[in-house]
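okkk here we go again. third time trying to get the adenosine-5'-triphosphate bound version out, last two times i messed up the smiles copy paste (missing a bracket lol). double checked this time i swear
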Amino acid sequence: MLTVRTPASTANLGSGFDCLGLSLPLATTLRLWPAPETEIKPLGDLLRGTPAGPDNYVYQAMEVVASAAEMPLPPLHLEIESEIPLARGLGSSAAALVGGMVAANEVLGRPLSRTELLNLASREEGHPDNVAPALLGGFVVATFDGKAAQPIVFQPPETLGVTLLIPDFTLETAKARAALPSEYSRADTVHAVSHAALTAAALASGELDALAGAMQDRLHQPYRAALVPGLERILAGAPAHGALGAALSGAGPTVLCFHRAGGSTAGLHAFLRGVLEAEGLHGQVLDLTPDREGTVVRGTFDENP
Ligand SMILES: Nc1ncnc2c1ncn2[C@@H]1O[C@H](COP(=O)(O)OP(=O)(O)OP(=O)(O)O)[C@@H](O)[C@H]1O
Ligand SMILES: N[C@@H](CCO)C(=O)O
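finally!!
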């Protein structure tokens, strides 16, 4: 049996819109083996409602690789399980896409390189900031010119912890992107470039006290605040409650706070829950440490379970 495990990811980290991403330890897991006819089984509560046929996003990702490699997929059994809540800003679509692509590449005997897989996934997603950490793990800075992605991966400091506030409601990325303006002033552009660069430098150097200032953003968060009740209050108040910095995770509605790993996050949790309750919303607050491995493949397609 072939098993492919692909992590969740948080993109943007403030101003690093479409170019910064961090891999997180929740994962989507695919299990595949040969079968007389193709069968697709999404399992578990989080995948309820996702298609159990060839229109499933994971299988569509597999077909993208088959088409690029000009090789047909054999009939197969595909089980999909996920710990990543859908449409919450935690890279569920990137994990499904990258997992499916890596799985197809394994099934077909690895016709594509990792670089080719990353380029294909970036083209499908439109930007590399979730797919690159989903494939490569760790913290990724990546550009994308519409054809090829150029990633640099490094491991975040051991002292970096992550707190997520994951609301119960969903927000499709397409809707959250539609809320953004198509043009920005020079001042906002300079603000974005400088803050994204400073965020990357803070994470690369371990100068974590710079994060609160570095993670300021004028590019997407102000426009998405209307779609995420409580966002502005959290971004303004989190540092006073122990966060090193805070940002909307990807397209939202999850909000990400960094904290010092090993330190108490009780005050931060109480603050985040208080904002959620004040907005009349429900959700969960989770402490995690970054994923460092990216997509992991185990076993082979030849072995039946
Ligand atoms: N494991 C999966 N199997 C099938 N479809 C999936 C799976 N994971 C995600 N999807 C599809 O992707 C959609 C969510 O993608 P979307 O880009 O809106 O959000 P996200 O990837 O969770 O968040 P973000 O891109 O902001 O991090 C789901 O509604 C579903 O259609
Ligand atoms: N950079 C993307 C991440 C979500 O896919 C966005 O914020 O829209």
